[in-house]
Batch of 2 targets.
Target 1
Amino acid sequence: MRILITGTTGYIAKRLALQLLEDKHELICCVRDTNRIPDEIAEHPLCSFIKIDFLSPEPNKVPINIEVAYYLIHSMATDADDFESLERRCAQNFKNLVEATQCKQVIYLSGIVNDHSLSKHLKSRLQVEETLKSEKYALTTFRAGIIVGSGSASFEIIRDIVEKLPVMITPKWLNTKTQPLGIRDVLTYLSGALEKEALYNSSYDIFGPEILTYKEMLLQFAEVRGLKRYIYTLPVLTPKLSSYWLYFVTSTSFQLAQALVDSMKVEVIGKPSDINNHIRIQPMTYKKAVELAFQRIQQNSVISSWKDAVSSGVFKDQLSKHIELPQYGCFKDIRSKTIIDEEFTLNQIWGIGGRNGWYSFNGLWKIRGYVDKLFGGVGLRRGRTHDTYLEAGDPLDFWRVLFADKKDKRLLLFAEMKLPGEAWLEFKIVKDRLYQRAVFRPKGVWGRLYWYMISPLHAFVFEGMINALVKPK
């Protein structure tokens, strides 16, 4: 079957693509930035890629001979004022393009929208569903609540809270009820709906077997991890204070924290249907989903993470616009060292950040992360998706990977911390030498003052880092 997938670099689509390829389907994957094509599918013989932005697509960009299309475009983290209109325009453009093809079915993953008091994002999801309906193809909509899996936003946020706080003073929305669903079950629904005519022009709530409050989810998560946790809820925490609480305690951005608090105030209970009979699935319990997620983490085989999304940070452009280091109007710190063991140095570079730290003056890196978080930045808590593997688009603490190629022996990072300017950090091996370049392009007087204030620290931090990269212990 020839299938079109949108949102290819996103949390759901990246995993779904791998599952569909295992089932021998031919995929046409839509990407906004060709530098972010996932390595796992980049060279697959059944995969092809088209560069397209559904906010302003080119006509006739989508191949005419597709049979099914997945609409998996959505960003919880956007802070755009006209968020809902952008979502609607994106869906309408997708619909216009797909209606000009031979597509028989569009499959759309939405959110459960049964409560009368919907959040802004759930209203937008419902609006997108209405926009996607067509007389030219059949629409199948799955409405999911909280999705639980390694790397999912809800999983990682709950993990942050549970593993860091033995005693929690929490907002009252922790008593809101929901029905969490494992990521593996989500993928089974999405793949199992292919060309099932009984599901055409229908929408289904998909959910796990339990109704849990967010407080119960935290406590059950703690049980799986073998931790004892105490939770006390306070009614005095307003939505804004709750957003700040979530932002400072977890690795989420403030925009995503606001969106989550807005959604978590709403009870998300699914409407029963016969969908499990059609798909032949018995969804797993919440605890089972958490256990399977940690199996992935322990095996260092997390396929995708919500933090991979560019919108999880402050990055607004395509990676390609920043992949060349600027030469003029910049401050630079350039160091080089002779390499003793090239394999060791490459492994050190590809393992930098996250749990491994930055190899030199980690305390200063942590302080910089706290300061960044205090001023509304992403801080260091995002860590990294894999301990030893990097690809373009990955988050790396408060950096974003722009380019990562071990064969080319080059890693390029772009700063997503709060800065009065733009910053790059590059590691590149040429012959038997490692070149480490820090480049800062200031904005105005404050940018220049910032560089002059922190440049004395570079003599310690950057020198110690390059020494650790080239000298095996």
Target 2
Amino acid sequence: MGNSAYNPADETAREYYNSEDADNFYSLIWGGEDLHVGLYERSDEPVFDASRRTVARMAELVPSLGSSSRVLDLGGGYGGSARYLAHEYGCQVVNLNISERENERGRQQNREHGVEQLVDIVDGSFDDIPYAADSFDIVWSQDAMLHSGDRQKVLEEANRVLRPGGHFVFTDPMQADDCPEGVIDPILARIHLDTLGTPDFYRGALNKLGLEEVTFEDHSDMIAQHYGRVREVLIEREEDVAHAISREYMERMKTGLGHWVDGGKNGYITWGIFVFRKSS
């Protein structure tokens, strides 16, 4: 049963990530901790290793990150990034995520990792963040904002809860600024959205909100690499996971992953790490 407070795009994402097929796919194939694009050093390395490298690199790019930091992860899935930050930096992290099923798995992982005192997993949407203004030193997000039907609202909410002088660090699969019309329609149909964000959109919207761009580390080549690697692992393990993931879902996923690979190879999809700083 849906939450009437969620907009249609949020509810679509919520229902998808709450499904048994999706939960098992991301747990068994995608690595079970970090549900985002990885940074690969080898084409055949585990998805988990590459995805965790993204988390580590993002953390390195935030100069203010330390044990006294209070971090908000928007759409953080199972909470893998939050647990990494808690372990490596000793900071307090709130993981705000819309899928109750993912959140229950994440809370169990928090207990297994012994970080319940540092990582709080909260049910909710990044369109309406349940925290007061200036509550966080760092707002963090990885490949989640693409699911929003109102990315401008998400950015406004991120800015609202970020304290002056704080940093907003994020990744998001984006359509290139010069992407021809219609060429990524198969990707959009797969995720039930009309558009993806663009680098120019994020830059313009965040600048108007008073955030200054610190860096954009372009890793566009990782789109085809990552989605292709996930597809390879799914094909390799298809028989092993057939008890947990339906054949129909796996076939749809292989097709969908192929669209992302094509978009990356053709230069229609871009991706990288953005860091912005809020004016003091």
